[in-house]
Amino acid sequence: MLRYRRPPLSAPSATRASLAAFAIAAALAPQAARATNGYFQHGYGVKSLGAAGTGIALPQDSLAAATNPAGTALVGSRLDAGLTLFTPDRGARIRGNGAGLDGDYDGNDRRHFLIPEFGYTRALSSDLSVGLAVYGNGGMNTSYARNPFGAIGGQGKAGVNLEQLFVTPSVAARVAPGQVLGAALVLAHQRFSARGIGPFAGASQDGGALTDRGTDTSNGAGLKLGWTGELAPGLSLGASWSSKVQGSFGKYRGLFADNGGFDIPATWGVGLAWKPAPAWTLAADWQHIGYGDVGSVGNPLSRLFAGRPLGGADGPGFGWRDVRVVKLGVLNEVVPGLVLRAGYSHASQPVPGDQTFFSILAPGVVQDHATLGFTWGVDAHSEVSGYVARALPKTVSGSGSIPASFGGGEADVRLSETLVGAAWGWKF
Protein backbone atom coordinates (compact mmCIF):
# COMPACT_ATOMS: atom_id res chain seq x y z
CA MET A 1 0.00 0.00 0.00
CA LEU A 2 1.21 3.50 -0.71
CA ARG A 3 1.77 5.89 2.19
CA TYR A 4 2.32 9.60 1.89
CA ARG A 5 3.81 12.02 4.37
CA ARG A 6 2.08 15.28 5.06
CA PRO A 7 2.52 17.97 7.70
CA PRO A 8 0.42 17.17 10.81
CA LEU A 9 -2.86 18.88 11.51
CA SER A 10 -2.76 21.79 13.88
CA ALA A 11 -4.14 20.96 17.34
CA PRO A 12 -7.37 22.96 16.82
CA SER A 13 -7.98 21.23 13.49
CA ALA A 14 -7.37 17.81 15.02
CA THR A 15 -9.77 18.55 17.86
CA ARG A 16 -12.48 19.75 15.49
CA ALA A 17 -12.06 16.65 13.33
CA SER A 18 -12.39 14.32 16.32
CA LEU A 19 -15.44 16.11 17.71
CA ALA A 20 -17.13 16.15 14.31
CA ALA A 21 -16.55 12.40 13.90
CA PHE A 22 -18.06 11.68 17.30
CA ALA A 23 -21.06 13.93 16.74
CA ILE A 24 -21.97 12.37 13.40
CA ALA A 25 -21.48 8.83 14.70
CA ALA A 26 -23.66 9.53 17.72
CA ALA A 27 -26.38 10.90 15.46
CA LEU A 28 -26.35 7.82 13.23
CA ALA A 29 -25.88 5.22 15.97
CA PRO A 30 -29.60 4.63 16.58
CA GLN A 31 -29.88 3.45 12.96
CA ALA A 32 -27.12 0.88 13.34
CA ALA A 33 -27.87 -2.77 14.01
CA ARG A 34 -26.00 -5.82 12.84
CA ALA A 35 -25.28 -9.47 13.55
CA THR A 36 -22.31 -11.28 12.07
CA ASN A 37 -20.01 -13.28 14.38
CA GLY A 38 -22.72 -13.71 16.98
CA TYR A 39 -23.57 -10.02 17.33
CA PHE A 40 -20.08 -8.60 16.72
CA GLN A 41 -19.02 -7.25 13.35
CA HIS A 42 -16.69 -9.42 11.30
CA GLY A 43 -14.19 -6.51 11.28
CA TYR A 44 -13.76 -2.77 11.82
CA GLY A 45 -12.93 -0.24 9.14
CA VAL A 46 -13.87 -0.52 5.45
CA LYS A 47 -10.37 -1.68 4.50
CA SER A 48 -10.36 -4.47 7.07
CA LEU A 49 -13.95 -5.43 6.22
CA GLY A 50 -12.92 -6.00 2.60
CA ALA A 51 -10.28 -8.50 3.74
CA ALA A 52 -12.57 -10.64 5.95
CA GLY A 53 -11.94 -8.45 9.00
CA THR A 54 -8.23 -9.21 9.32
CA GLY A 55 -6.29 -6.49 11.12
CA ILE A 56 -4.60 -7.69 14.33
CA ALA A 57 -1.21 -7.65 12.57
CA LEU A 58 -2.30 -5.59 9.55
CA PRO A 59 -3.43 -2.05 10.48
CA GLN A 60 -4.63 -0.16 7.40
CA ASP A 61 -6.40 2.99 8.56
CA SER A 62 -7.31 5.01 11.63
CA LEU A 63 -9.96 2.45 12.70
CA ALA A 64 -7.06 0.10 13.52
CA ALA A 65 -7.47 0.58 17.28
CA ALA A 66 -10.89 -1.10 17.13
CA THR A 67 -9.01 -4.33 16.38
CA ASN A 68 -5.57 -3.73 17.88
CA PRO A 69 -4.57 -0.40 19.51
CA ALA A 70 -0.92 -1.01 18.58
CA GLY A 71 -1.95 -0.23 15.01
CA THR A 72 -2.43 3.42 15.97
CA ALA A 73 1.35 3.90 15.60
CA LEU A 74 1.55 2.16 12.22
CA VAL A 75 -0.91 4.03 9.99
CA GLY A 76 0.52 7.56 10.14
CA SER A 77 -1.52 10.72 10.64
CA ARG A 78 -4.89 10.37 8.93
CA LEU A 79 -8.65 10.82 9.11
CA ASP A 80 -11.19 8.23 7.88
CA ALA A 81 -14.97 8.33 7.58
CA GLY A 82 -17.12 5.52 6.24
CA LEU A 83 -20.63 4.14 6.03
CA THR A 84 -21.96 0.61 5.50
CA LEU A 85 -25.40 -0.40 4.28
CA PHE A 86 -26.32 -3.57 6.13
CA THR A 87 -29.17 -5.79 4.89
CA PRO A 88 -29.94 -8.89 6.97
CA ASP A 89 -32.47 -11.60 6.14
CA ARG A 90 -33.63 -13.21 9.40
CA GLY A 91 -36.46 -15.50 10.31
CA ALA A 92 -37.65 -18.66 12.04
CA ARG A 93 -39.82 -21.72 11.56
CA ILE A 94 -41.72 -23.50 14.34
CA ARG A 95 -42.81 -27.10 13.80
CA GLY A 96 -44.47 -29.81 15.84
CA ASN A 97 -45.78 -27.40 18.47
CA GLY A 98 -48.86 -28.34 20.47
CA ALA A 99 -49.80 -24.76 21.39
CA GLY A 100 -50.51 -23.57 17.84
CA LEU A 101 -47.19 -21.79 17.17
CA ASP A 102 -46.34 -23.72 13.99
CA GLY A 103 -45.48 -21.62 10.97
CA ASP A 104 -42.80 -19.75 9.07
CA TYR A 105 -42.00 -16.31 10.49
CA ASP A 106 -40.27 -13.44 8.70
CA GLY A 107 -38.21 -11.21 10.99
CA ASN A 108 -37.56 -8.55 8.34
CA ASP A 109 -40.14 -5.91 9.16
CA ARG A 110 -37.14 -3.57 8.86
CA ARG A 111 -34.56 -4.58 6.26
CA HIS A 112 -31.89 -1.89 5.90
CA PHE A 113 -29.52 -0.32 8.43
CA LEU A 114 -26.69 2.21 8.24
CA ILE A 115 -23.46 1.62 10.17
CA PRO A 116 -21.10 4.62 10.45
CA GLU A 117 -17.40 4.60 11.27
CA PHE A 118 -14.88 7.36 11.97
CA GLY A 119 -11.24 7.37 12.91
CA TYR A 120 -8.41 9.80 13.48
CA THR A 121 -4.73 9.14 14.22
CA ARG A 122 -1.87 11.53 14.73
CA ALA A 123 1.86 10.84 15.04
CA LEU A 124 3.17 13.01 17.89
CA SER A 125 6.72 11.85 17.22
CA SER A 126 8.48 9.05 15.40
CA ASP A 127 7.76 6.75 18.37
CA LEU A 128 4.43 7.94 19.81
CA SER A 129 0.96 8.22 18.25
CA VAL A 130 -2.57 8.85 19.48
CA GLY A 131 -5.92 8.11 17.92
CA LEU A 132 -9.69 8.03 18.20
CA ALA A 133 -11.92 5.34 16.68
CA VAL A 134 -15.73 5.58 16.65
CA TYR A 135 -17.61 2.52 15.45
CA GLY A 136 -20.44 0.09 16.02
CA ASN A 137 -19.07 -2.99 17.76
CA GLY A 138 -22.10 -5.17 17.41
CA GLY A 139 -25.84 -5.41 17.60
CA MET A 140 -28.97 -7.34 16.78
CA ASN A 141 -32.37 -6.50 15.35
CA THR A 142 -35.43 -8.61 14.66
CA SER A 143 -38.92 -7.40 13.88
CA TYR A 144 -41.65 -9.98 13.26
CA ALA A 145 -44.80 -8.38 11.85
CA ARG A 146 -46.49 -11.73 12.53
CA ASN A 147 -45.69 -12.53 16.14
CA PRO A 148 -44.18 -16.05 16.54
CA PHE A 149 -45.67 -16.18 20.05
CA GLY A 150 -49.11 -14.91 18.99
CA ALA A 151 -50.90 -18.20 19.58
CA ILE A 152 -49.96 -18.13 23.27
CA GLY A 153 -50.79 -14.48 23.86
CA GLY A 154 -48.06 -12.45 22.15
CA GLN A 155 -49.45 -9.04 21.22
CA GLY A 156 -48.46 -6.96 18.18
CA LYS A 157 -45.08 -7.19 16.52
CA ALA A 158 -42.32 -9.16 18.21
CA GLY A 159 -38.59 -8.61 18.26
CA VAL A 160 -35.61 -6.95 19.88
CA ASN A 161 -33.25 -4.16 18.95
CA LEU A 162 -29.70 -3.95 20.33
CA GLU A 163 -27.30 -1.16 19.31
CA GLN A 164 -23.76 -0.57 20.53
CA LEU A 165 -21.66 2.54 19.87
CA PHE A 166 -17.99 2.49 20.83
CA VAL A 167 -15.65 5.45 21.23
CA THR A 168 -12.05 4.30 21.62
CA PRO A 169 -9.25 6.80 22.28
CA SER A 170 -5.88 5.08 21.92
CA VAL A 171 -2.16 5.57 22.36
CA ALA A 172 0.65 3.48 20.86
CA ALA A 173 4.42 3.58 21.20
CA ARG A 174 7.37 1.98 19.46
CA VAL A 175 9.20 0.43 22.39
CA ALA A 176 11.99 -1.24 20.40
CA PRO A 177 12.89 -1.65 16.72
CA GLY A 178 9.89 -3.30 15.07
CA GLN A 179 7.97 -3.61 18.35
CA VAL A 180 4.83 -1.57 19.14
CA LEU A 181 2.61 -1.59 22.22
CA GLY A 182 -0.83 0.03 22.32
CA ALA A 183 -3.61 0.72 24.80
CA ALA A 184 -7.10 2.11 24.42
CA LEU A 185 -9.97 3.17 26.64
CA VAL A 186 -13.19 1.55 25.44
CA LEU A 187 -16.26 3.73 26.04
CA ALA A 188 -19.47 1.89 25.21
CA HIS A 189 -23.03 3.15 24.81
CA GLN A 190 -25.75 0.50 24.43
CA ARG A 191 -29.44 0.79 23.52
CA PHE A 192 -32.00 -2.01 23.83
CA SER A 193 -35.71 -2.57 23.36
CA ALA A 194 -37.99 -5.62 23.22
CA ARG A 195 -41.63 -6.02 22.29
CA GLY A 196 -44.27 -8.67 21.78
CA ILE A 197 -42.87 -11.31 24.19
CA GLY A 198 -45.54 -11.03 26.88
CA PRO A 199 -46.15 -14.81 27.05
CA PHE A 200 -42.85 -15.15 28.95
CA ALA A 201 -44.02 -12.83 31.75
CA GLY A 202 -45.13 -15.75 33.92
CA ALA A 203 -41.58 -17.09 33.85
CA SER A 204 -40.05 -13.78 34.93
CA GLN A 205 -39.11 -12.41 38.34
CA ASP A 206 -40.71 -9.13 37.20
CA GLY A 207 -43.24 -9.59 34.40
CA GLY A 208 -43.76 -5.83 34.20
CA ALA A 209 -40.11 -5.30 33.22
CA LEU A 210 -39.92 -7.90 30.48
CA THR A 211 -41.26 -6.40 27.26
CA ASP A 212 -42.64 -3.25 25.60
CA ARG A 213 -40.77 -0.87 27.90
CA GLY A 214 -39.40 1.29 25.10
CA THR A 215 -35.68 1.91 24.62
CA ASP A 216 -33.31 1.62 27.56
CA THR A 217 -29.67 2.72 27.54
CA SER A 218 -26.48 1.69 29.28
CA ASN A 219 -22.98 3.14 29.45
CA GLY A 220 -19.79 1.36 30.39
CA ALA A 221 -16.02 1.40 29.99
CA GLY A 222 -13.29 -1.14 29.44
CA LEU A 223 -9.70 -1.54 28.35
CA LYS A 224 -8.09 -2.76 25.15
CA LEU A 225 -4.40 -3.75 24.90
CA GLY A 226 -2.37 -4.74 21.87
CA TRP A 227 1.07 -5.58 20.51
CA THR A 228 2.53 -5.80 17.02
CA GLY A 229 6.02 -7.10 16.31
CA GLU A 230 8.09 -7.52 13.17
CA LEU A 231 9.51 -11.06 13.26
CA ALA A 232 11.42 -10.72 10.00
CA PRO A 233 11.36 -8.37 7.00
CA GLY A 234 7.80 -8.53 5.65
CA LEU A 235 6.51 -10.77 8.45
CA SER A 236 4.55 -9.36 11.42
CA LEU A 237 2.72 -10.90 14.35
CA GLY A 238 0.09 -9.20 16.49
CA ALA A 239 -2.01 -9.85 19.59
CA SER A 240 -4.96 -7.97 21.07
CA TRP A 241 -7.19 -8.28 24.15
CA SER A 242 -10.35 -6.39 25.16
CA SER A 243 -11.83 -6.56 28.63
CA LYS A 244 -15.47 -7.23 29.43
CA VAL A 245 -17.53 -4.02 29.59
CA GLN A 246 -20.26 -3.97 32.20
CA GLY A 247 -23.78 -3.01 31.15
CA SER A 248 -27.29 -3.12 32.53
CA PHE A 249 -30.81 -2.44 31.23
CA GLY A 250 -32.98 -1.67 34.26
CA LYS A 251 -36.16 -1.39 32.22
CA TYR A 252 -35.66 -5.03 31.23
CA ARG A 253 -34.66 -6.44 34.61
CA GLY A 254 -37.38 -9.05 34.14
CA LEU A 255 -35.79 -10.33 30.93
CA PHE A 256 -32.01 -10.36 31.33
CA ALA A 257 -30.22 -12.35 34.03
CA ASP A 258 -28.94 -10.59 37.14
CA ASN A 259 -31.63 -7.88 37.17
CA GLY A 260 -31.11 -6.70 33.60
CA GLY A 261 -27.37 -7.28 33.30
CA PHE A 262 -26.03 -7.11 29.77
CA ASP A 263 -22.23 -6.99 29.72
CA ILE A 264 -20.25 -6.81 26.49
CA PRO A 265 -18.06 -9.93 26.27
CA ALA A 266 -14.29 -9.94 26.52
CA THR A 267 -12.41 -10.76 23.32
CA TRP A 268 -8.87 -11.64 22.40
CA GLY A 269 -6.98 -12.77 19.34
CA VAL A 270 -3.73 -13.15 17.43
CA GLY A 271 -2.86 -12.25 13.87
CA LEU A 272 -0.18 -12.67 11.22
CA ALA A 273 0.68 -10.54 8.18
CA TRP A 274 3.18 -11.57 5.51
CA LYS A 275 4.40 -9.85 2.35
CA PRO A 276 5.65 -12.64 0.05
CA ALA A 277 6.24 -10.05 -2.70
CA PRO A 278 6.22 -6.23 -2.77
CA ALA A 279 2.70 -6.03 -4.23
CA TRP A 280 1.13 -8.81 -2.16
CA THR A 281 0.09 -9.11 1.50
CA LEU A 282 -1.44 -12.16 3.16
CA ALA A 283 -3.14 -11.89 6.56
CA ALA A 284 -4.67 -14.32 9.04
CA ASP A 285 -6.45 -13.64 12.36
CA TRP A 286 -7.83 -15.89 15.08
CA GLN A 287 -10.37 -14.35 17.47
CA HIS A 288 -12.20 -15.53 20.58
CA ILE A 289 -15.46 -13.89 21.76
CA GLY A 290 -16.57 -14.83 25.27
CA TYR A 291 -20.36 -14.88 24.97
CA GLY A 292 -20.56 -17.75 27.46
CA ASP A 293 -19.17 -15.55 30.24
CA VAL A 294 -22.13 -13.14 30.04
CA GLY A 295 -25.08 -14.62 31.95
CA SER A 296 -27.86 -12.94 29.96
CA VAL A 297 -26.33 -14.24 26.72
CA GLY A 298 -24.66 -17.51 27.68
CA ASN A 299 -26.91 -19.06 30.35
CA PRO A 300 -29.21 -21.77 28.91
CA LEU A 301 -32.98 -21.44 28.94
CA SER A 302 -33.14 -24.68 30.94
CA ARG A 303 -32.25 -22.73 34.10
CA LEU A 304 -35.87 -21.62 34.04
CA PHE A 305 -36.87 -25.16 35.06
CA ALA A 306 -34.30 -25.27 37.84
CA GLY A 307 -36.22 -22.55 39.69
CA ARG A 308 -34.36 -19.54 38.30
CA PRO A 309 -36.76 -17.07 36.65
CA LEU A 310 -35.98 -14.72 33.80
CA GLY A 311 -34.17 -11.72 35.22
CA GLY A 312 -33.12 -13.54 38.37
CA ALA A 313 -29.64 -14.04 39.76
CA ASP A 314 -27.68 -16.15 37.26
CA GLY A 315 -31.02 -16.70 35.50
CA PRO A 316 -31.81 -18.00 32.02
CA GLY A 317 -30.34 -16.43 28.89
CA PHE A 318 -30.04 -17.23 25.20
CA GLY A 319 -27.71 -20.18 25.74
CA TRP A 320 -25.01 -18.93 23.37
CA ARG A 321 -21.57 -20.51 23.37
CA ASP A 322 -18.22 -18.75 22.97
CA VAL A 323 -17.29 -18.04 19.37
CA ARG A 324 -13.94 -18.66 17.72
CA VAL A 325 -13.26 -17.05 14.36
CA VAL A 326 -10.61 -17.70 11.72
CA LYS A 327 -10.12 -14.90 9.17
CA LEU A 328 -8.01 -15.02 5.99
CA GLY A 329 -7.32 -12.00 3.78
CA VAL A 330 -5.24 -11.14 0.73
CA LEU A 331 -4.23 -7.71 -0.64
CA ASN A 332 -2.71 -6.90 -4.02
CA GLU A 333 -1.45 -3.49 -5.15
CA VAL A 334 -2.35 -3.98 -8.80
CA VAL A 335 -0.85 -0.66 -9.89
CA PRO A 336 0.51 2.19 -7.78
CA GLY A 337 -2.44 3.68 -5.90
CA LEU A 338 -4.89 0.79 -6.49
CA VAL A 339 -5.18 -2.00 -3.91
CA LEU A 340 -7.61 -4.91 -4.26
CA ARG A 341 -8.69 -7.09 -1.33
CA ALA A 342 -10.47 -10.38 -0.78
CA GLY A 343 -11.10 -12.58 2.21
CA TYR A 344 -13.00 -15.37 3.86
CA SER A 345 -13.79 -16.04 7.51
CA HIS A 346 -15.37 -18.90 9.42
CA ALA A 347 -16.79 -18.77 12.95
CA SER A 348 -17.93 -21.50 15.30
CA GLN A 349 -21.68 -21.67 15.91
CA PRO A 350 -22.89 -19.69 18.96
CA VAL A 351 -26.45 -21.08 19.00
CA PRO A 352 -26.86 -24.75 20.00
CA GLY A 353 -29.78 -26.66 18.56
CA ASP A 354 -31.48 -26.91 21.95
CA GLN A 355 -31.40 -23.11 22.47
CA THR A 356 -33.15 -21.92 19.30
CA PHE A 357 -36.54 -21.08 20.84
CA PHE A 358 -35.34 -17.94 22.62
CA SER A 359 -32.94 -17.21 19.76
CA ILE A 360 -35.91 -16.56 17.48
CA LEU A 361 -35.43 -13.06 18.88
CA ALA A 362 -31.69 -13.02 18.14
CA PRO A 363 -30.80 -15.50 15.38
CA GLY A 364 -27.07 -14.69 15.18
CA VAL A 365 -26.25 -17.98 13.46
CA VAL A 366 -24.21 -17.06 10.36
CA GLN A 367 -20.72 -18.55 10.33
CA ASP A 368 -19.09 -17.78 6.98
CA HIS A 369 -18.24 -14.43 5.35
CA ALA A 370 -16.88 -13.85 1.85
CA THR A 371 -15.57 -10.35 1.09
CA LEU A 372 -14.12 -8.17 -1.68
CA GLY A 373 -12.72 -4.65 -1.40
CA PHE A 374 -10.52 -1.96 -2.92
CA THR A 375 -8.72 1.29 -2.21
CA TRP A 376 -8.00 3.90 -4.87
CA GLY A 377 -5.53 6.66 -4.13
CA VAL A 378 -7.13 9.76 -5.62
CA ASP A 379 -4.02 11.85 -5.02
CA ALA A 380 -1.17 12.12 -2.53
CA HIS A 381 -3.58 13.09 0.24
CA SER A 382 -6.94 11.38 -0.26
CA GLU A 383 -8.20 7.90 -1.04
CA VAL A 384 -11.51 6.12 -1.54
CA SER A 385 -12.18 2.57 -0.31
CA GLY A 386 -15.11 0.22 -0.70
CA TYR A 387 -16.13 -3.33 0.06
CA VAL A 388 -18.90 -5.87 -0.27
CA ALA A 389 -19.42 -8.78 2.11
CA ARG A 390 -21.81 -11.67 2.11
CA ALA A 391 -22.61 -13.65 5.24
CA LEU A 392 -23.68 -16.95 3.74
CA PRO A 393 -27.17 -18.25 4.62
CA LYS A 394 -27.27 -20.45 7.69
CA THR A 395 -30.09 -22.30 9.45
CA VAL A 396 -29.79 -23.95 12.87
CA SER A 397 -32.45 -26.60 13.32
CA GLY A 398 -33.94 -27.03 16.74
CA SER A 399 -33.28 -30.20 18.73
CA GLY A 400 -35.30 -30.40 21.93
CA SER A 401 -35.63 -26.63 21.70
CA ILE A 402 -39.18 -25.74 22.81
CA PRO A 403 -40.07 -26.62 26.41
CA ALA A 404 -43.16 -28.75 26.96
CA SER A 405 -44.72 -25.91 28.96
CA PHE A 406 -44.79 -23.90 25.71
CA GLY A 407 -46.19 -26.77 23.62
CA GLY A 408 -42.97 -28.59 22.70
CA GLY A 409 -41.75 -29.07 19.15
CA GLU A 410 -38.83 -27.37 17.45
CA ALA A 411 -37.76 -23.88 16.43
CA ASP A 412 -35.43 -23.44 13.45
CA VAL A 413 -33.69 -20.06 13.11
CA ARG A 414 -32.03 -18.63 10.00
CA LEU A 415 -29.94 -15.66 8.95
CA SER A 416 -28.01 -14.30 5.99
CA GLU A 417 -26.55 -10.84 5.38
CA THR A 418 -25.28 -8.52 2.71
CA LEU A 419 -23.01 -5.55 3.52
CA VAL A 420 -21.83 -2.82 1.15
CA GLY A 421 -19.66 0.00 2.42
CA ALA A 422 -17.46 2.91 1.36
CA ALA A 423 -15.00 5.19 3.12
CA TRP A 424 -12.94 8.28 2.44
CA GLY A 425 -9.48 8.73 3.90
CA TRP A 426 -7.25 11.78 4.22
CA LYS A 427 -3.54 11.44 4.95
CA PHE A 428 -1.84 14.41 6.59
UniProtKB/TrEMBL annotation:
Location in the cell reads: Cell outer membrane
Question: Which GO CC terms are listed, alphabetically?
Answer: cell outer membrane
Q: Which residues form the signal peptide?
A: 1-35
User: One GO molecular-function annotation for this sequence?
Assistant: long-chain fatty acid transporting porin activity
Carries keyword Flavoprotein? no
Note the PANTHER family from the entry: OUTER MEMBRANE PROTEIN NMB0088-RELATED (PTHR35093:SF8)
The answer to whether keyword Signal applies is: yes
Q: Which InterPro entries match?
A: OMPP1/FadL/TodX (IPR005017)
Q: What is this protein called?
A: OmpP1/FadL family transporter
Bilayer topology term:
Multi-pass membrane protein
Q: Which UniProt keywords apply?
A: Cell outer membrane, Membrane, Signal, Transmembrane, Transmembrane beta strand
Q: What superkingdom does the record give?
A: Bacteria
Family listed:
Belongs to the OmpP1/FadL family.
